[in-house]
Amino acid sequence: MKILVINSGSSSIKYKLFHGDGLELAAAGLVERIGLEGSRVLHTIYDASRERKIVQETPVPDHQAGLERVAALLTKPGIAVIEHPGEIAAIGHRVVHGGERFSDTVVIDDDVIETIRRLIPYAPLHNPANLEGILVARQIFPDAAQVAVFDTAFHQTLPPHAYRYAIPNALYEEHGVRVYGFHGTSHLYVSKRAAAWLGKPLAEVNLITAHLGNGASMAAVRNGRSVDTSMGFTPLPGLMMGTRCGDLDPAILFYLADRLGLTLEAIDRLLNKQSGLLGVAGKSDVRDVIAQMKGGDERARLALAMYAYRIRKYIGAYMAVLGRVDALVFTAGVGENSPLVRQMSCAGLEPLGVVLDEARNHARGEGVRPIHADESAVNILVIPTDEELEIAQQTYDILNPSIG
């Protein structure tokens, strides 16, 4: 069985092709700058002996052309991983927002498409692009089953006291204003990996998972189910991020509008695109901020202190939520690759049983890496995330009874 995973953005398409019951990676790539100058396709083929990389500098006017390029590369003589598009049995699509309607993976039909369309106001930057990818994929791969995997689905197990806001009931009941949470596919994937490392069923583990990338979120996982998460109605609240402010006094919005005369559009841009690490340190990439701090930049030092402080506060809060914590998991670009951020985030938590080992924290390695000290009551793990593999697995699982 061959499964193509598509993550369609407003100007990009990320994809991976998996094959076999073991879901081995056959090819992966990125179509970037769709509809813009300098568009190109980066394509990698994986086989037993080596990786082969292909770069095509070519105009890609729209998503239709982008997926046609992908199909052409997958079937191109000499580098083909499939003979024709009909070999692909299923396509798993990342969809950011599933609202309350979707708490699990679904096979896409016209009703699902219409519901994703109706949910666009909840994720105006993401759902339109996700929907475009689905519509185009149906044309390019008409014989493949189309499956939607939602970022919000894992967090649909939050209890009402965690997902409700203290605002009038009508705003929830009539307009769906509540905590939805995001990065759910990543939180679920690393939760499964952590449970396997612990030698326990997922349903028996309590975890705190920290997905730290340019966008960042944390989750409290009790008995394998999300019971709290740092993002909310949108991906803006919670942790300090690359360009997003994270938790903020909502009355600041009134101040920005009334006293500074900013429009709603300008406030949205300010909090989502100009804040976070960028707003404090002038750089949005943690690596750049660390380099600036090492060069003596005090704003960079402050930005990192703020960044780690938010993470540390959420760790403490989620320990209170869960009671027993089997493991603290760091994942995504920053979580997997920055020993300094991990060290700063865990500093001072020793009385709570969270004790980092400095040598293990700085050691490199593959797969699940324990970085806690021997005396730590809580396991601290670094687990590389693989959202595409999780999407492929969920796609396989939902279809396997009917095609197996």
Relevant terms:
404 residues; alpha/beta; Nucleotidyltransferase, domain 5; 2 domains; eight-stranded mixed β-sheet; six-stranded mixed β-sheet; 15 helices; 14 strands; 21% strand
Question: Mind explaining what this structure looks like?
Answer:
This protein has 15 helices and 14 strands. The protein has helices spanning about 65-75, 110-120, 125-140, 160-165, 170-175, 185-200, 250-260, 265-275, 275-280, 285-295, 300-320, 330-335, 340-345, 360, 385-404, and strands spanning about 1-10, 10-20, 25-30, 40-45, 50-55, 90-95, 105, 145-150, 205-210, 215-220, 225-230, 325-330, 370, 380. Strand 4 (about 40-45) and strand 5 form a beta hairpin.
Q: Structural class, please?
A: alpha/beta
What order do the SSEs take from the amino end to the carboxyl end, as H and E?
EEEEEHEEHHEHHHEEEHHHHHEHHHEEH
How big a fraction of the residues is strand?
Answer: 15-25%
Shape estimate: globular
Spans where pLDDT lies below 50 across 5 or more residues: none
Helix content: 25-40%
Rg estimate, integer Å: 22 Å
CATH architecture annotation name of the largest domain = 2-Layer Sandwich
Distance between the termini: 9 Å
- Major sheet details: 8 strands, mixed
Fourth CATH level, the homologous superfamily of the largest domain: ATPase, nucleotide binding domain
Report the total helices. Answer: 15
- The CATH class of the largest domain, by name, is Alpha Beta
Number of strands: 14
CATH topology of the largest domain: Nucleotidyltransferase, domain 5
User: How many separate domains make up the residues?
Assistant: 2
What order do the strands of the largest sheet run in, or round the barrel if closed? 5-4-3-2-1-6-8-7
**Roughly what is the average pLDDT, rounded to an integer?**
93
Q: Kindly report the oligomeric state of this protein.
A: single chain
